[in-house]
Request: fold
Amino acid sequence: MAKKKLNVALIGYKFMGKAHSNAFRQAPAFFDLDAEPVMKVLVGRDAAGVKAAAEKMGWEGYATDYREVVSRPDIDLVDITTGNTSHAEIAIAAAKAGKHVFCEKPLAMSVAEASEMLRAVEEAGVKHCVNFNYRKLPAIQLAKRLIDEGAIGRVFHWRSVYLQDWIIDPEFPLVWRLQKEEAGSGALGDLAAHSIDLAHFLLGKIATVSGLLETFIKERPLATAMGGLQATASAQRGPVTVDDGALFLARFESGVIGTFEATRFAAGHRNGNILEINGSEGSLRFNLERMNELEFYSRRDPGHIQGFRDILVTEGGEHRWMGAWWPPGHIIGWEHTFTHQVADLVEAITRDKPATPDFRDGLQAQLVLDAVERSAQSGQWVAIE
Ligand code: SOE
Reply:
């Protein structure tokens, strides 16, 4: 019998659009999905650009106006990879048209927007998913399992840094990610948002925060062209209106205490999403730049062999998603997290299960981002509502 089809419209075709397109292509080729995602239509405002991208990435067609696409009867799932300012508008329109919605992170520009988005998808009764893709790392799933099994005992500390360096050159142009009205915030919403979601996933909710934000380079040349994280500079300059670096302390509802740091000014760090968790019986360490490994230290090991062990998370029978890929030891990469997310989302839709992470998780992260900003402004601790 022919497989059911799940027709997808993808809005946005640059960096994230490319990552999502790859995921929709790979997911049915490697996972046994109940429905086949069909790459129906790619949407972007520039007709020539979106047409070329659709042809290159294997979309059946293209369009320049998302409004026409979200109301098309043949579309089942709307995937949003546009800049942060348009997430809410597109997600709400898609939900109202009865489509399932998949959206890049951070979910929204504000708590109010994120709440509206959540209301819209819940009222429509559609599946909703926010792409905090690092939950979909086999190493993070193993960390969750070890924590839940009590392997590290009572957790005391969360320590995360998310370190990049792509804007350290003061002449790097003022791309949309450096403008508050386009991005919402800087390293905070772009990078710390991932750490916040991982902390929520692994250890439960953050209760209060004390934040510090800094913009090191106040003015930059305006950008004349861009794609992905690349751009060219023009002679005119403009103000940087987001944080370059973000730090905060946190107390979790469980009593865990944590530190978070996110920056694009950590020279030498290209994409260092690093975390450590310490408990009464052991510790866990993870670094995205070594994403096929999880480090685990157990106080229960006999003394003469105590030390961090490096677990290669590529065992098909043991480590989530790995059975779909290659034999043990044949490692996977960053783009696989998107494929895992798509496979999970298709399963949530076809089996009528909640998608994870969903807009509720997106809102929870947004509440923390907002609290950190308010705390940085006031110099006070702020509780998450
Ligand atoms: C750029 O800073 C970026 O691509 C983020 O936007 C992503 O969310 C992160 O996963 C990697 O870095």
In short: Residues 96 and 124 are 6 Å apart (CA to CA). The radius of gyration is 21 Å. The chain has two domains: 4-134, 138-290+292-332+364-378.
